[in-house]
Amino acid sequence: MPLQQARKRSLPEDVFEQLLGEIASGRFAPGSTIPSERELTAVFSVNRHVVREAVKRLEQVGLVRGAQGGRTRVLDYRRTAGLDVLALLAEHARPGIETLPLLTAALEMRAGIGADVARLCAERGGEEVGAELLRIADQLAEVSGDELLELDQRFWQLILDGAGNLAYQLAFNSLIRVVHARRDLSAGWLERELGRSGHRRPIAAAIAAGDPAKAATEARAALSPPQHELDEFDLREETDR
Fold this sequence. Notes:
Layout: H1 11-25, H2 37-44, H3 48-60, E1 64-66, E2 72-74, H4 77-80, H5 83-92, H6 99-124, H7 127-140, H8 145-163, H9 166-179, H10 183-196, H11 201-208, H12 212-223, H13 227-240
Antiparallel strand pairs: 1-2
């Protein structure tokens, strides 16, 4: 949609989000330049400091780069940005055609990372971690909605703590933001995922038994969605539009 006067309390955030949306949609294509600082201040009805702060944030996440002559050029974020941009795109994507590819990418990567952090946790976590994971798995079978989302996040945070790998922790943070960008849909999604995978108990049992190979296998199986679930999610997104 066309750029609009900034209205949020945090003006730099508003400007950043609108420019992000233009880049993500392709309306500001890689290689093109965004409007000048003077043009942006007029469009958004803000001062130059606000525009500069927003554009600086775009540069920090790898979406644009200052060019000669004072113009700012749009980058191909697939080549220059980090994983946090996937989360930003998911949080600002339109339901349906923009959301599904992001969700699919996040779920595929989550399965790979989840399998390896479960393996590491089984090697390094110890008996107390295993016992706590079993306790949370039992609770997961009895809750729903936002409580389910929060409890499942605690389950994986405990596994990440047991794995002791900072890179995986930071990557998982971004992936969780993508998967839960639409909380109205993610709670139902998670209920189905947990139902077909024993509410994480097979993962917890393998970690408690100190079996890294089994933990990895169970985690990958639990976190790899059948194609029909993705197709159904796509249909729900289309209905919501």
